[in-house]
Amino acid sequence: MNRRIQPFLSVLFYVMTLLPFILLVTKSFSISWNWPMVWPNQFSLQGWSVLFSEPRLLDAVFQSLLIGFVVILLNFIIAVPAAYVLAFEHFKGKSIVESVLLLPLMIPSLAVAMGIHLSFIRIGLADQWMGVVLVHLLPTVPYTVKIIRAGFESIGNSYSHAAATLGATKRKTYYTVYLPLLLPSIRSSLFLILVISMSQYILTALIGGGNVITLAIIYFPFLSSVNDAVIASFSLLFALLPIFSVLVFEILFRLLVPYQKKLQLERKSGGDHYK
């Protein structure tokens, strides 16, 4: 890439990324800001006061994060082994397994959720947060499988073979070899899962039955409001929670995941051996 163009593209990227956020923050503090006004005439805390006056807000934040974290955990329990097998193993019916895992992306979730709701009523998971967690796996697991599988395929299995020759078990190979190299895929999956889970309104309302209160449940009724400042305030809260959660996970990665820099440098330099 031309060195003269690269700084321009970097500035353009940051502007395109930060400008919507800045506009949203300004909107949340404005009283009236309509076209063709360049800047709001008046500012107010009304949008935020309405947001924080919602009595169910803290419970909704807690429930959203709890459900999101459990959905993330179950996603990786299901997706990592499935992605590994699909990436490196060859067996009869592999295409069928791939199709089944991706089927929720092709069929409307609401159509499937109606049948799941009836089943959950029978087994006692309807109107429970765990039932909401399980139904949130429908729109998230296919994406996680695809992202993690792409990560495995880009890494290859040469590192695992080298670790096996040195006597490493499969569990140790996963933890010390694949986990550090899969961090980019894991980060992408984490953010995507959280955003999808927190934004589920219909699935949460259907399975939760009004007993499971998440941010989506109290947010969507405000979309019919004419007060744009309130909508902007809710939108900012929606945007900041996944970002904050990913930062928490990033700290945990730095504390718990070994050999991150070492393996990434080896991979970039074309090293074929794990030491």
Short characterization:
The chain has 275 residues and is mainly α.
Evaluate the radius of gyration.
Answer: 23 Å
Summed up, the domain count is: 2
CATH superfamily membership of the largest domain? MetI-like
Strand content: under 5%
Tally of extended strands?
0
Instruction: Please count the helical segments.
Output: 13
Largest sheet data? none
- In N-to-C order, the SSE pattern is HHHHHHHHHHHHH
Shape: globular
Detailed description of the structure:
By secondary structure, the chain is an all-alpha fold. The protein folds into two domains: 1-44, no CATH class; 47-268, MetI-like (MetI-like fold, Orthogonal Bundle). Helices cover 74% and strands 0% of the residues. It is globular. The model is unreliable at 271-275 (pLDDT under 50).
Output the keywords.
275 residues, mainly alpha, MetI-like fold, 2 domains, 74% helix, globular
Blueprint of the fold:
Elements: H1 5-28, H2 46-52, H3 57-88, H4 94-106, H5 109-123, H6 129-155, H7 158-165, H8 170-181, H9 183-198, H10 202-208, H11 215-219, H12 228-256, H13 260-268
Helix pairs in contact: 1-12, 2-12, 3-6, 3-9, 4-6, 5-6, 5-10, 6-9, 6-10, 7-8, 9-12
